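Here is the promised in-class demo. Please do not try to memorize the tokens; focus on the logic of going from shape to residues.
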């Protein structure tokens, strides 16, 4: 029997006194009803044979999809989550009545990045035995969005100035603008080759600058700031200014000279690195992200997050398991790298100009009206992002799909 099915069929539910309420032999619910009601409902699938469906689900051969469209506009992961993550989510479904308070994910992130921490045991929220992490360097959030938003509010609540590139991913400035006119933003244009202009960004620093926001690789260009270049920029900035580096797409980088930027967060007092489980780990639906920084930065950010009770049990379980499945992450990376190369070659043959980036997408200058292309592709149920979103009217951004998705969009573009 498939492992997921054994978990769902044999799970045991006890009341608070430890008395057995439900198991696989003493229950008014049959295995079929239990699987259909909990297993299928929780995963959003309709099944006639629960054992076969669970086996297909765990082998990633029949992953559920909400609609028949080719979704190539949101930079999602077409491979989907790790089978280990699916199994971990299924294993804890019977405990959804309890708050997810233990810092399991926080500990797993420290281990994943090789960050040593001191812990202690004690009584925490609601009288629970809890592991406390001393001087933690990790903050978790509902996607990296929550961490970026917390940074904006923590550093700009009293007002201040943000520097960012344009175009880029601007969650920091979007969140800060909610604070009103006490926040100002300088958007520094990219260089002609679409790389960040770090010199111009440095020149834009003012006495009231609080945050410099970078996305590396950048979205929507996919271009990567080199490790040495990034380090030199960090060292040239006043340490009172928080440098936020969003590494949502870091798992797709091919540049072997690039080093883990979390090294900066571990050795500098003013660097926050954010990461997400939505891209490389294929878990966008679970909304899990985190940040790594100096303990004092983390302490400041935590005042503006939902905290441990803001995380979902499914997200925590899936993320912890995903961090341990290096093979699946490599499969996702390989699928994106191969698909990216295929699209770049095909677009070039069509006299278009792709930007050779490092994300799970390709930005390309089509030489045409991007909205017109968007509408043409939409008629074929292919979803992409037109460049008008970034004031780049001739560009489109194509998220890497499965091989048949990539072939379909090439064929559609060739047909005009």
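The designed amino acids, position by position:
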């Amino acid at each position: 029997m498939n492992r997921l099915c054994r978990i769902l069929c044999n799970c045991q539910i006890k009341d608070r006194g430890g008395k057995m309420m439900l198991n696989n032999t003493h229950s008014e619910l049959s295995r079929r009803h239990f699987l259909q009601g909990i297993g299928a409902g929780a995963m959003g699938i309709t099944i006639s044979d629960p054992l076969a469906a669970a086996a297909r689900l765990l082998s990633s051969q029949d992953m559920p999809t909400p609609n028949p469209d080719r979704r190539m506009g949101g930079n999602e992961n077409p491979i989907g989550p790790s089978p280990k993550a699916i199994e971990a989510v299924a294993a804890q479904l019977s405990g959804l009545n309890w708050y997810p308070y233990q810092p399991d994910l926080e500990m797993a992130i420290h281990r994943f990045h090789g960050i040593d921490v001191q812990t202690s045991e004690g009584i925490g929220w609601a009288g629970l035995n809890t592991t406390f992490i001393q001087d933690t360097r990790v903050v978790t959030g509902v996607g990296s969005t929550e961490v970026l938003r917390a940074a904006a509010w923590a550093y700009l609540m009293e007002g201040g100035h943000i520097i960012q590139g344009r175009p880029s991913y601007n969650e920091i400035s979007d969140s800060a603008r909610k604070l009103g006119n006490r926040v100002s933003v300088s958007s520094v244009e990219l260089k002609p080759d679409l790389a960040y202009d770090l010199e111009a960004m440095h020149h834009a620093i003012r006495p009231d600058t609080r945050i410099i926001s970078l996305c590396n690789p950048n979205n929507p260009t996919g271009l990567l700031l080199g490790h040495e270049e990034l380090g030199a920029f960090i060292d040239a900035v006043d340490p009172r200014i928080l440098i936020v580096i969003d590494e949502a797409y870091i798992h797709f980088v091919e540049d072997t000279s690039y080093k883990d930027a979390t090294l900066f967060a571990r050795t500098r007092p003013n660097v926050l690195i954010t990461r997400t489980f939505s891209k490389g780990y294929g878990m966008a639906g679970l909304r899990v992200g985190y940040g790594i920084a100096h303990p004092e930065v983390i302490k400041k950010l935590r005042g503006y997050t939902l905290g441990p009770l803001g995380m979902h049990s499914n997200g925590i379980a899936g993320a912890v398991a995903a961090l341990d499945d290096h093979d699946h992450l490599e499969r996702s990376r390989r699928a994106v790298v191969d698909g990216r190369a295929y699209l770049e070659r095909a677009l070039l043959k069509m006299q278009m100009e792709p930007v050779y980036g490092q994300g799970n997408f390709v930005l390309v200058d089509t030489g045409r009206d991007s909205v017109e292309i968007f509408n043409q592709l939409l008629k074929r149920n292919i979803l992409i992002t037109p460049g008008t979103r970034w004031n780049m009217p001739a560009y489109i951004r194509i998220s890497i799909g499965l091989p048949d998705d990539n072939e379909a969009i090439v064929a559609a573009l060739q047909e005009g």
